[in-house]
Specification:
By secondary structure, the chain is mainly α. The protein is built from nine helices and no strands. The protein has helices at about 5-25, 35-60, 65-75, 80-105, 125-145, 155-175, 180-190, 195, 200-220.
Length: about 220
């Protein structure tokens, strides 16, 4: 296992999760005016674009256990390397949540993903599962198509970042947007309680969606 690749995954997931949490914790109550959902979506989209350009070449720029497992299903990544990547990603998400917990002024839920009381729209479990699966499948189709051999050079980070921003615009009110088990893990660990009890949803649904999306793209591209 390449230690530099693991470090890149840790850093990338740290920054990705930080982009979501920092914007969610602080920008809604900014004295100059709340950035709101659009601000959160732009924060993560820009961050993913930047980190993919800066360090994506070191590890492939997954920053997401669902993406890693989707790429395994899509034949783009070795299954034997997946566990190390996932551990690094989860540690990165927990570490950045710890940073924000130290800074303080975080909401009690730590912007955790969830249904019912943890959803802006009080969405049901089934609604959250469906949107997380569908949007993660969509995300994998974009990732695999943007990184295919012969794709225009240099455009993958832009298309992936813009897609993730769009996904957040669509699903923050429903599930607070995961499509990334590591991003869900960090806040749930610090929020505890209901957020931690619902965490399984944000492992199962995004991973299932990622595998489905990868298999769909693989079929389309055969």
């Amino acid at each position: 296992m390449n230690i530099k690749a693991l470090a890149a995954e840790f850093i990338g997931t740290f920054m990705l999760t930080g982009a979501v949490l920092g914007a969610a914790f602080y920008s809604f109550g900014a004295p100059s005016g709340a950035a709101g959902i659009v601000g959160v979506a732009l924060s993560i989209g820009i961050t993913v674009f930047a980190t993919a350009r800066a360090i994506g070449h070191i590890s492939g720029g997954h920053y997401n256990p669902a993406v890693t497992l989707g790429l395994v299903a899509g034949g783009r990544f070795k299954a034997g390397d997946a566990i190390g990547y996932i551990i690094a990603q989860c540690l990165g998400a927990i570490a950045v949540t710890a940073v924000f917990a130290t800074i303080g002024h975080a909401p009690a839920t730590f912007a955790a993903n969830g249904y019912g009381n943890l959803s802006m729209l009080n969405a049901s479990l089934s609604s959250v599962i469906i949107i997380e699966m569908v949007l993660t499948a969509f995300f994998l189709i974009v990732i695999m198509g943007s990184t295919r051999p012969g794709a225009p050079a240099g455009f993958a980070p832009l298309s992936i970042g813009l897609t993730l921003a769009a996904i957040h615009l669509m699903s923050i009110p429903v599930s607070n947007t995961s499509v990334n088990p590591a991003r869900s893990l960090g806040p749930a660990v610090f929020a505890g309680g209901e957020a931690l009890s619902q965490l399984w949803v944000f492992f199962v649904a995004p991973i299932a969606g990622a595998v489905i999306g990868a298999l769909i793209y693989r079929w389309l591209d055969e």
